[in-house]
Amino acid sequence: xxxxxVHLLDLLAGHPAWTLLVVFLAAFLEAIAVIGTxxxxxxxxxxxxxxxxxxxxxxxxVFAWAIVGAIVGDGISYWxxxxxxxxxVTVWPFxxxxxxxxxxxxxxxxxxAKSVVLARFIGPLRAIVPVVAGMLGMTPMRFYxxxxxxxxxxxxAHILPGVIFGASVQVAGVVSFRLVVIIALLVGIAWLCIxxxxxxxxxxxxxxxxxxxxxxxxxxxxxxxxxxxxxxxLNPDRPVAGPVVAxxxxxxxxxxxxFGILQDVISGDPLVVVDRSVYHFLQSVRTPWGDSTMxxxxxxxxxxxxxxxxxxxxxxxxxxxxWRTLGYWLAAIVFSQLLTVTLQFAIHRAPPETLNxxxxxxxxxxxAAVVTIYGFIxxxxxxxxGTLAGVFVVSTSTVAVACVALAGLYFGRFWFSDAVGxxxxxxxxxxxxxxxxxxxxxxxPPSRGFMPAVILTVVCVSVAVQFDVGAPTMKSDSALNxxxxxxxxxxxxxxxxxxxxxxxxxxxxDRKEPLAIQWSASIDxxxxxxxxxxxxxxxxxxxxxFASLASPKASAMTLPALPVLNNGVPSSLVLIHPxxxxxxxxxxxxxxxGYAIEKPGAGPASAERLWIGSLVHERLYRxxxxxNMLRDGFKKT
Length: 637
What we know:
By secondary structure, the chain is α+β, with helices and mostly antiparallel strands.
């Protein structure tokens, strides 16, 4: 996999003109009326930025082509209205979806000329507002000023996050390619959750209206009690109609998903094979840093965090006098846990990790609890904030739940189908509670714009407290010596040194730089000895070392040195020494072995840990401003 990844980067670096052409076309087509609805230009800009971060593209050229493409695309949309005038309303999709133009017209009338800038960042309106600007008589001079300004803001906003991601991947690849996979997984989950949320919310109104119309037609043809209830509930004059239809559809889809997964789990259908594939893949990319990252993400769904959210939401509901809503929610949490535990004991499905002996996994009661609590709080917040804040709330909650589920899969606490089944079952409870709450009080509650910040603060504080309590501690030198094999100096110099590995091995099994150093001493003695020769600690991360990654005048000595892995073990000591120029340096890394060498005539009590190490020469190069990277080569010793 790593070789394919490196080959892809080399291929892209060898054909920058074609890649830049894609950047131009993506920015251009996304801004074209009609076509822009189907072109993921923002995603293309992010990927282009990622290529900049890995050194495959030049940032200046990416900016230039993206900005030009965006300006020309909006200009073409503006010209279309001037050229075809009133005929534009007869063109698909405006002919079939006239509300699209109406939304653009309302947005333009509300925000005026600055709507050209704002719409650039709003997917459904990006390609519509330039057309509306021409329809409503905006002068070309004023339009192109706003058009150029919007492109200058839009391109960096979408490209720079990709640059940061690409640089992170590049750095992670130096440590271990498995970290690249973990970073890609996390970013992919966040991106997918945000895109799905935006897509669902942007189409939710149309889906709810179509479903409501279909149900109303059916109810009109049936005179029974069901028809009368549906007509009463879906009365368009009542504000409860939309939320009730949305909750009902969620219940139906969640039940369908849960029972489908339940059938597959019981019958052992191909979904079980997918479970094993997901589990084995995540186990194959595990690293010590990945474990720390996933453990941190798991705190988003820990008992402490969930309890903090419940404690925060309870007085909020009491303050608003939503007694029954609060009672329904607390009851849903209790009964959903009782139901999932009952199903677990009925199905008797063991989790992946054998350490969880005696536990059952389907459906995951942990994921169910997370979805029930986060889902209800999301429902409360979304009804009390504006549209944009609602998108942020739903997206953030979805990402948090997905990260908790991924952490559980990563550590083998449950299978993939267990997580999906638990989430589907919990969504039923959340939808029922939302249905009951809206049905009782259909009037939209007062705005609570400050509550998302309060909830986010509670989550962050809870996670920070758990990070502080559960922070891993470095092993002392004496702890490293536990379980060691003691050898004499003569045994070491005669035979033992030959049995130690000659090359550093990454977790993928590839041979890296030579392990040309063997040293028997305490880690403090080694560091003190090398400091007298001009070596300094290179693994200390500080604000200055991070700032140097983007400094145009950074020297090699100011950049942090990475503690790379040897057979999955991070280096215990990293020291750096200045090279011949300020763009060069030497890096010494040491790893512990399973041996300790006793001093001549002093006995086993004098044995000191035996270390193996590598010495590499690194040279600073700037792949593309503002990213500074170090390329290493093997140091001859």
